[in-house]
Amino acid sequence: MIVFEKVxxxxxxxxxxxxxxxxxxxxxxxxxxxGSGGGKTTILKLIVxxxxxxxxxxxxxxxxxxxxxxxxxxxxxxxxxxxxQDGALFxxxxxxxxxxxxxxxxxxxxxxxIDEKVDELLTIVGVEHAKYYMTDELSGGMHRRVAIAxxxxxxxxxxxxxxxxxxxxxPVNALNICNLINELSKNGTxxxxxxxxxxxxLRVADRFIFLKDGQIVLDGDRSIxxxxxxSDVMIFLSELKQIS
Amino acid sequence: MSIKIKKLLSDLQDYYILSFKGLIGxxxxxxxxxxxxxxxxxxxxxxxxxxxxxxxFIGMALSLQLSAELASLGLKMxxxxxxxxxxxxxxxxxxxxxxxxxxxGAGMASELGSMIIGHQVDSLRVFxxxxxxxxxxxxxxxxxxxxxxxxxxxxxxxxLGGYYIAVFVSHQSGYVYWSSIRDILDFENVxxxxxxxxxxxxxxxxxxxxxxxxxxxxxxxxxxxxTNAVVFSIIMxxxxxxxxxxxxxxxxxxxx
Lengths: 244, 256
Known about the structure:
The complex is a heterodimer. Chain A is an alpha/beta fold. Chain A folds into two domains: 1-79 and 162-244, P-loop containing nucleotide triphosphate hydrolases (Rossmann fold, 3-Layer(aba) Sandwich); 85-156, no CATH class. Chain A is 40% helix and 26% strand. Chain A has nine helices and ten strands. In chain A, helix 4 (111-125) packs across helix 5. The termini of chain A are far apart. By secondary structure, chain B is mainly α. Chain B has one domain. In chain B, 86% of the residues lie in helices and 0% in strands. Chain B is elongated and about 70 Å long. The chains are: A alpha/beta, B mainly alpha. Chain A binds chain B through residues 45, 48, 50, 70, 74, 77-78, 80, 82, 84-86, 88-91, 101-102, 105-106, 154, and chain B through 114, 118-120, 122-123, 125-130.
């Protein structure tokens, strides 16, 4: 479904991704790990066409999206549902209006139908009580949950993309978000989670891609990750040892 | 050096494209009428009091200066005429535009900048919403409607301020003052003064939106884009005012 072929990307003169290639199939649950500024979020933005690579090709469901124009990318973006770091909720709108945003934009639903749909989505993510809160009244965990509810309102995506969905949350909220991510992927919908928390990656993913200096240094399943002797991976895994 | 020139040309091109698309968006669906009304409320109603206060004191100061100067020449009765022409053609539109730029332009740049930093604009793009249509067009439309309205109100208040000084400080006849004002309210003067706010409104909103949407980095980037929005808007107001004045004087047949 998602194919990266020798993709390179740089911000100004900083090379972020250096000639990376990988394939992610439909329904796969993938975690992209790596240090801050390592290009993890850049990969998500490249997948949905928010950024263009300097070189290489990105193919989504057989379509090369590398040179597509903004309006041509709409079709590609409908296949994904992305939750940005910190939720990226519209801070001028309340929770209900954030979740209803796409419903108002793309459907002819009546106000009553929108209200019911928002209730349904907020119940799925467990924040139905915060329907009329403004976004600055939400805790970090609630922020992510509302962002997930908003992403569910878009359509039925083929794959969820989560950017640092658990970063900055306390362990209980992080676990709850991971459970929610797993719950949403039960019907065969895949997801890619970008994180630097190995423990959360292990909770939600079957496949792990580790980035270092703009290159993929590890791509494999749980056993390959846990037995890796790459120094950076071992440092990340030491988080698990500290917990145990 | 050539890299800097390339960057400047590239930025200019991006600005032209954004402002063109933002302007054309007024005539293309979807119409975000709620966003336009919100912007009008923020830009127009929110700036009303500030424009009134500034215009009142500008009108009074202008009337004071001119009364003193004209009195020494024995031409005090022309105070209303000179104050009126100055305010309607030049001072009123520029003053309202500068106040609007400081309040609304800076607000637009910082609001859009923080939306960029918080990935809210990326969210719009992922949801298939054109950020220019949703964010820029309502701001341009509200500015080219509200700034002329504010200018008209500001002109009226400035003329009142001028009247107060002329009558109660300079001891002139109120009837003479208002009849001078009535005399200068002809097509040439009104047209000359009323065309400028449309241009200023477009320039302020498009420059501020461009600066906001090209914000990079965090708080420092936001500070830079907000400052640039105000600085470039002010420069463009002054330059375009001169150019418009020159063109209008030529078109309306004034000889220099």
